[in-house]
Amino acid sequence: MKREILTIILGLITAGLAMAQGPMVDRSGTATFFSEAPLENIEATNKEVLGAIDLEKGTLAVSMLMKGFHFDKSLMEEHFNENYVESDKFPRATFKGVISNFAALDFSKSGSFEAEADGEIEIHGVKKPLKTAVKFDVSAKDLKATTSFNLAVADFDIEIPTIVFKNIAEVVEVKAFFNFSRPK
User: Fold this and answer.
1) Where are its TM segments located (predicted)?
2) pLDDT tens figures, 48-80
C-alpha cells in the first residue's frame, strides 16, 4: 500500500515538473511553401524558423525572416524577395496563437495527437486570422509539431502580375515542422 502511494506521488510530481517547464523553443524549425501553377511548380524552404510553445498557457509563436526562404533557382528567390513579399520592407512573417483545445490535451504522456491552433498570421505587413490543425508527437525526449495549411497570396496584398499568373498559384500550400527539446 505504501509503495502504491509513493508511486502515485512520484507520478504526480513528475507530471507537475513536465508541465512546469515554461516555453519550449526551436530555433531551427522548418517552413516550406509550394506553388503549383500551369507552367511551373515553385517550392521554397526556410530552415531557420523560430518556434515557441508554452505548455503552461497553451500558447504558440512563430517568427521567420522572409529572406530565409531558399529556392532551387536564384532568380526565383530574387523575385520573391524584391517583387512579391518585399523582404526589405516586410522582413518577417509571424504567427501568434493558442491551442484552442489545450485543456483537453495531455503533453505529459508519450504519443501522437492532433490539436487546433487559433491565432493571427502576419505576412507582408498584413495580419489575418489563421486556424490550423497541428499534429503533436510527444516523447520523453522531445515534442514535435507539424502543420499544413493553404494561404491565398492576394489576402496578404501580394500582387502577382498578370504576365506570370501561369507561373505562380493564387493559393500556396504552407508546411511547418518544429522539434522542441525538453530541458535536461
Assistant:
1) none
2) 999 999 999 999 999 999 999 999 999 999 999
Biggest alpha carbon–alpha carbon distance for the chain: 77
Entry pTM: 0.83
Backbone φ and ψ for 59, nearest 5 degrees, come out as -105, 155
In the numeric block, the cell 509563436 is attached to 61
Using CA atoms, how far apart are residues 107 and 59, in angstroms rounded to an integer?
13
With beta carbons less than 8 A apart as the criterion, state whether 96 and 118 touch: no
d(CA 68, CA 17): 35
Cell of 106: 495531455
For cell 524584391, what's the residue?
82
φ, ψ for residue 9 (rounded to 5)? Answer: -65, -45
Dihedrals phi, psi of 80, to nearest 5 degrees = -55, -50
Burial degree of 146 (CB within 10 A; 0-12, 13-18, 19+): middle
Beta bridge partners of 112: 137
Q: What's the CA gap between 72 and 58, in Å, rounded?
A: 36
Cα radius of gyration (the chain): 20
